[in-house]
Write a structure and sequence with these properties.
Length: about 230
């Protein structure tokens, strides 16, 4: 049975996407620089806040989620800067753009690899955060919110990193562009996380949760529609 042209296009798209993901992982397995720098950076943030905010348990609970998301956001931003920097080495991106692949597969591949990197760091940080702050973080609802927040932040970050990657000061430009745009995602994720931690019912947390999902969907559409144009500029 012959495959239809649409099936062939879909197959080539995912083959290209997986090739980009595998390329990023091979580089990381060889250099071991991205995950190690993100982990050290995250641990430093957690430790600084732990000793700076020498508070009782009730006071820690009030600031715990904010500190957790600050750690995740900064680690993700560092990861985005480094993964995009890899494409500038030896004009890797130019070579990918010259290859006969769907340009969107570049976006999907870079996004998935960055998302995996960030979630690995989150998985390492959360147990340490639990030990230091004594805050129950291993709730299925909270994990879902963290994944949704990470999804939206890394997605829009991947898009904006393509704008910043060709500039001279991309390490500075990316946070300047990313933080204002991703603010709705971060605020929704923090509000939803706080309500989960305080034991709120679904009716109380449904508002920020629904906003988080809506923002993720909106950014998926915006990213797909604009990426082809941005990557060629």
């Amino acid at each position: 049975m012959m495959k239809s042209p649409q099936d062939n296009t879909t197959t080539k798209f995912w083959q290209s996407t997986l090739a980009i993901i595998w390329k990023d992982w091979k580089i990381e397995l060889r250099k071991k620089s991205l995950l190690s720098s993100m982990l050290i950076f995250s641990l430093m943030i957690v430790l600084i806040f732990t000793f700076a905010l020498d508070l009782d348990k009730s006071a820690r609970e009030n600031v715990a989620i904010g500190i957790l998301w600050v750690t995740f956001v900064f680690a993700a931003t560092l990861g985005l800067n480094q993964t995009i920097a890899l494409e500038n080495e030896n004009s890797t991106l130019d070579g990918i753009l010259l290859s006969p692949i769907d340009q969107t597969s570049i976006l999907v591949g870079k996004f998935i690899s960055t998302f995996i990197f960030v979630t690995i760091i989150e998985a390492f940080v959360m147990p340490i955060y639990y030990i230091l702050f004594e805050i129950p973080l291993f709730s299925p609802k909270l994990i879902v919110v963290i994944l949704l927040g990470t999804f939206g932040y890394t997605l829009v970050g991947t898009l904006l990193a393509t704008i910043a990657m060709r500039t001279q000061y991309r390490e500075i430009i990316l946070p300047i562009l990313l933080f204002p745009v991703a603010t709705p995602i971060i605020i929704s994720a923090v509000q939803c996380s706080n309500k989960i931690l305080s034991g709120a019912s679904w009716n109380q947390m449904s508002g920020p949760f629904n906003l988080l999902v809506v923002y993720d969907i909106i950014f998926v559409g915006i990213t797909i529609m604009t990426f082809d144009h941005l990557i060629k500029e």
